[in-house]
Amino acid sequence: MTIAGSIILIMLGAILTWAVEFDLAGLDINVVGVILMLGGLVGLLFGIYRISVTRRAVAPVDEPVHRHEVYEEPEARRTTVYEERRRYDEPPL
Questions:
Q1: What is the pLDDT of residue 36?
Q2: Which residues contact 1 (CB under 8 A, 6 or more apart)?
Q3: How many CA atoms lie within 13 A of 8 on its CB side?
Q4: How many CB atoms are closer than 10 A to CB 30?
Q5: Could you give the CA distance from residue 45 to residue 16 in angstroms, rounded to a whole number?
Q6: 1 pLDDT exceeds 70?
Q7: pLDDT per residue over 14-58, tens digit each?
Q8: What does DSSP assign to residue 13?
């Protein structure tokens, strides 16, 4: 339950407890209002506790990971060069 939801429950319980004059057979509206206020109060305290715990928590610092990577040289490629022999009496390209 969020803090806003808890505050809404407290307000709804207060309205049912002190502002509503309604009677149902077998149901006391005042008791329902008090129960809602207590539930909202418990939710509000729990929400505040959760926020304070998460703000205090610090993530553990891990040591850096040292990786041992082996880099292999790629195989040398053979390059074949073909030379074209020209005769001097041919026109230039």
A1: 95
A2: 9, 43, 46, 47
A3: 5
A4: 14
A5: 22
A6: no
A7: 999 999 888 888 888 999 999 999 999 999 999 999 988 877 656
A8: H
Query: Which pair of structure tokens corresponds to residue 38?
Result: 């207590």
> Which residues have a Cβ under 8 Å from the Cβ of 8 and sit 6 or more positions away?
40
Q: What sign does the CA torsion over 18, 23, 24, 25 have?
A: positive
> Cα–Cα distance between 35 and 12 in angstroms, integer?
10
69: how many CB neighbours lie within 10 A of its CB?
4
Residue with more model confidence, 54 or 5: 5
Query: For residues 7 and 5, what is the distance between their CA atoms, to the nearest angstrom?
Result: 5
DSSP character at residue 72: P
Q: Are 9 and 34 in contact (CB under 8 A)?
A: no
